[in-house]
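Hi, here's the filled form for the chain we discussed.

Project: internal
Contact: R.S.
Residues: 292
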Amino acid sequence: MAFRGHKFKTSKQDKKSDLLRFFAAFLAFALVFGSISAVVIFRHNQISLKSIFSKETTTSDSEETTTEEQNITPTELSGKTNFLIFCSADDYSEMYFLHIIEADMDNCILKVRPLNPDGKSADGKSYVQILKESGAGRLISAVAQKENIEIAKYAGSTAETFALAINYMDGLPYNVNERIEYRTDEYTLILTQGNQTIKGETLIKYFRYCKTLGTEGMRTQGKLVCAMLDSFINPKNVENGSIIYQKLLTKLDSNSDISFFEAAEAMATIKAFCNSDQRKNSTVIINDSSIS
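And the returned structure, exactly as it came back:
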């Protein structure tokens, strides 16, 4: 698999190592997905939204990052691995979405498999109950067991952190197929038909609405995640990714098990992935047993 402007070592690389280098792709998504707590930001006055969410970096930071990336020789991406993403209510009363993302580097594509966010583990506990009582690590184990797969890494958010992150990215560009007007006692969702930019708070409502639509709703949830992956995992975000992530890692709590060291090692490779002519748009895979 060739990447523009990159030369790869001729020796065969270990596939597991290659996939570890792909963590930066998921990192870029995790950064905008919401591993940031607004509550923590405002609790610690020494941290400001401006200092963390600045879309510009200083000249010295940019030069340092560029130098580091130039010293890393990216390897050819191959193999497959799975990540889990999820979003729940702030009080863990509801799971809004739960998705497996397969990084298929043999075909240079990200595949999104929606799971029923109201589903249960093999022992009968709901996923959100597991998250609330035992944490993200136990949730990942429960999903892996139920779906009979291996999950390498995860990133999670609450409604608050998800909306914050999406709004930082200026919203999600998305084409809504038809007008939606949906009201409950808890929320109201109104979306016009056509291309638009959906803000974070509205996007959460859209995910919740999709939960009411069965299989097609889960498919739409998957399409929304695909749009996020395709829009947010890009060379510009990767360029600033390690700087932003380092600030977050040292200052804030993060509901992700992707370390800064794993991310930093991977930046050059994911940049090559973003620039690759072989990269395909993300796609949704529906498994009926997983969404029932």
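Let me know if anything looks off before we file it.
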